[in-house]
Design goal:
This protein has a 3-stranded antiparallel sheet with strand order 3-5-4. The protein has one domain (19-139): Ribosomal Protein L22, Chain A, CATH 3.90.470. The two termini are 33 Å apart. 35% of the residues lie in helices and 37% in strands. By secondary structure, the protein is of the alpha+beta class. It is elongated and about 65 Å long. It is found in: Plastid, Chloroplast.
Length: 150
Amino acid sequence: MGCSSFIGGRWNFMIKRRSRTEVKALAQYICMSPHKARRIIDQIRGRSYRQTLMILDLMPYRAAYHIFKLVYSAGANARHNKGLSEVESFISKAEVNGGAIVKKFKPRARGRSYPIKRPTCHITIVVNTRYILLNKLYQSNLFNRNKFGL
């Protein structure tokens, strides 16, 4: 994702870079209401990787299965692509966005039709490691500042 601005007669492109320990998994066009998926995502945001898998495994909702697969995929991406440990991993970002709505018409009595709307959603899970994140905060001197930033 990049941003652009017009400075001094030229376009200045700023690139937002993700941390090297961040691993992302994305599921698109899941046939489910975004509201129902957000109900599950709010329960797992900020938790550790293993605790998230246990919570999702025991949840009785249909959305939990899709999110479980996505969190497991993000953990596998972290292990395989970046060589990160699952023990130190946690869910740093989890979001649900609305997707396309599939619209169909069902025939009803007396020649009428009734619209059927099937909402879809896009789910994004970002896994990060606690150890490296805390180390960066310590190096940026955030722990040593007082309440007023002096």
